[in-house]
Every structure is written in C-alpha cells, then in structure tokens.
Amino acid sequence: MDSTLNREAGLARFRSGEFDLAVIGGGINGAAIARDAAMRGLRVALVERADFAGATSSRSSKLVHGGLRYLPQGQLKLVYEALRERERLCNLTAPHLVRPVRFLFPAYRGLGMGRFTMAIGLSLYDILAWTPRARRHRSISAARVLELEPALSAAALAGGSTYYDAATDDARITFENVLDAGLHGAAIANYAAIEEFSRIGGKLAAAGVRDLIGGATFELRAKTFVNAAGPWVDEIRKLDDPSVRPCVRLSKGVHLVFPRAAMPVREWVVLAVDAGRIVFIMPHDRYVLVGTTDTDYSDDPGAVAVAEADVSYLLGVLAMRLPAIKLRASDIAAGFAGLRALVTAGGESSAPSAVPREEVILRAASGLITVAGGKLTTHREIAERVTDLAMSEIGRPKGVCPTKETPLPGARTTDDASDSRALAELPEEPSQILIARHGTRASAIAGIAVERPELAAPLAPGCLAIGAEAAYSARNEMALSLEDFLIRRTSMSWRCPAEAIAAAPAAARIMGAELGWNAERQRAETEQFTRGQTARRAAS
Known about the structure:
Structural class: alpha+beta
Helix content: 25-40%
Number of strands: 18
Number of helices: 17
Distance between the termini: 44 Å
Largest sheet: 10 strands, mixed
Shape: globular
C-alpha cells in the first residue's frame, strides 16, 4: 500500500465525499479511532486543526505503563488493561517504538509506599501483566539502591525495588496510527478546523471545515462524528449544543530536560513525592527527561506553558532526593507543558492526582460521540470501544476488532530484498537512527539517503535525525513546518534540544526544497523554531 499522506488529496476528499465516520482530533485517541474504523472498512475522515500529536500526545512522559500509582487508589481494572496493552505494544504491535525499561523505585521512610507495601503492589503488577521471570520486580536493600544510583539521598532510605515498564516516542506512535488509517483508505488533513455543525432531522449530518492554510471553507458530510479533540472536547461539544456542561477537567503536566552532563544519573528512577504523586527521572542518550507535575489548569489550552512554580516544584523534588547533583534553573536544556483531559466525575474538590484516568465516552442526542481522558497506553482499547459504538450508530455489525493483532506500519515485516540493501549501504549511525524511529519502514528513508549521500549524515553533530528524514517527512508525512518535523516527527526538540537548534537551518533548507519555500520562508521557519525552543528553555 502507498505510504504517502497527502493533505491536498485529503481536503479534496473532504469536499467531494460522504463518510461513514468523521473523527475530530489527531491526537492519540483520534488517530487510533480513525485507524480502527478504517481497518473495519468504514469510510473515514480524520480532521486535525493543528498538527498530529500537536498538544497532549507529544507532551507526555513518553511512557507506556500500567500506572503503578493507581493500585493504591483501587483502579485495578485500569491497571490490568494498561498492562495488557503495554505487553501487546512491546511484543506485537509496536516493538520498534515501545521498549521495556527497568525502573529503580527507592522507598523512603515516612513518604509514599513502604518496602512491604511496595513489594505487594509490584507483585500484583507482575501478576496482572503476566510478567516473564526475567523482568519481574525485585526488592532490594538500601545499600543496593545506592549502588545502582549513587546520586540518591541516603537519608531515611529504607530500601527499594526494581521493576519494568516501557518507554516510547508518544508523537511517533500517534503518527503511525494516523499513517495506518491512511493506508487503509482514510481521508486525512491537518491544519483544518471544525467551525460548525449542521443537522438533518436533529442528527448531525455535516460539519463546516476551514482550511487553516489555504483559508477556504467547505462542508464535510458524515453519518457519524466522533469528538476526540483532547483539551478542546468541550469546545466541540458546545458547537453541537451550547448549553452542554463541561465533561473534562484540565490538569497541567510539566517536564524538564537536563543535559546528562549536568545530571549524571545511571538509572531510570521513580520518586515518590507528596499527595500521592510520583516524579520520573528518565535518561535518554545525552539528556534526561524529568516529570511530571499535576495541577489544575483553566486558561486557554493553546497557551499552556511551563511556569516558574512548575520549575521550582521539580527542582525541589530533585534537590531533596538527588542532593549531590546541584541542579539550577540555568541547567535546564528544554521544557514542555501538556494538558491531561480528566473526567469531571472525579470531583472538582479532589486533587488532580486523585482523579481517575479512565476515559469517558458520551453520546449526545445529535449522535455526536465524545471521548475524553484515558491514557496513552490504552489508546488502542479506547479506540476499539469508540469504534464499536460508532459502528452501532451507523447500523453496521461491529465484527472483530483488527487492531488487537495487526502491527503498526513500522512493525510489519517486508520481504523486499531492496529494503535491506538500502539500509545496508548506509553507515551504522544513520541506519540505527532510522530503524529506531521507523522500524521496517526505515528503508524508504534510507533509499533517499542512498540516492543523495549528502542527506545520509545527521542534520548537525550529535543530532538524532538525518537529512533524508527531513525530505521524507515533508514529502510523505504531512510535515508542513519545521516545528512539525523537529518537534513531532522526530522529537528532536526534547531528545537533543541544543542539537535541534543547530540542525534547524539545514532541516529548513531540505524541507524547503520539497515544499517550495524560498530563502525568506526558510529563515522564518528556522527563526520560529529557534525562538520557540529558546522560549521553552527560558520559561523553564
């Protein structure tokens, strides 16, 4: 199947076609729903008003996990479902993007779980996940904790445990769901906004769409609409019914990125903090990702940003538990903030960390289906439930959900010998960069690099992206700006933030050649990315 996504073709199909299902929102839930529905044979449209994974789905902790902290809250069903999905992603559907990682969880007296409670909880975690023996948790002494991670504070350290969860690239796994929806016939466009709905007999029949690049407006007709707009779900619901009450409560999560040189930790660490919260320390190559916060947010979802209080909170946690590492705000290489859409059923008086993470699925009298909340880990299962409901709404038998056993595009095997030849012709470093991000689809990008050897090298020294990826993303992955490429298609903005700034001019030249940017546009794209990256660092 053709692996090219074409925005203009998607918009043309929006204008001329009639769809069984129109999905609003290209975050992880919307992308997964579009994929599931298209694989079941529905005529699907996917509409995203910014870029795919442009908000929450590129600003998470980059973890696929069961949610260990939900066990004390009694959310066993959520943990079980998440662990089963974690294993499916690791072993079958996305092993190129989801990899097991070992966490060290120190137990401090008087804070969080004690050693005994931790051992019970992790044993249950292993049972629910059917964890193989080699990856089961181990209870360890305080001395062993400090041997594994000498930077941890020894004061009040009672011992700890090691256990396994998994890490991923959240934006990339979202995009592969978008890609697979396209491979199965969905019409897809980013930078297209839903502005109104129209009805026939009280039921939604069409939506007014504005092309945010070209400026044109047109009508998108569908039998059923799914609202998967993340932090904006209530805005979409109000387009349908202005009197509707909010169904989500927004919580802000902030992450900071430190150079490994400033934060020389050895292990992936889980730190218990106040109010049932935990903070993750996650080393990635030359940088360390730290997060997250969990605070209520009521302002414009599009303006969420790292605040001084967020930085102070995370630096305070690190100072308390890693006292030998004297981190300062000036050490921060990057930072980002995202919003969780939490179900309001948790009660406005509850702390955000106490609100359940299960999704909510609502059906309006107009037929609009809304999905909100949930976890990155359970996106496939959430999509299955929403698609089942949509099939019922349309009057089609739901059949067997194909996503349980079907790998994402980068995890599918290929028998084409030319694929492996292109990768084999590349030096080891660019070859490994491509495989780690694209899996079995790496050969398509490798082919560009073989044809144009100047695109085989990293975009800048130390940058974990090569020139051929910039060309491929502009040509085949609907990357329409430098930010689309460096923030979401490759995650360079947090994987190697300083190197991403250095790579920006070269990436802009390569994308410009594909997208017809003149020299002025290339400079503007470079300056916009650099300003944004610098602002994120300054805010941090």
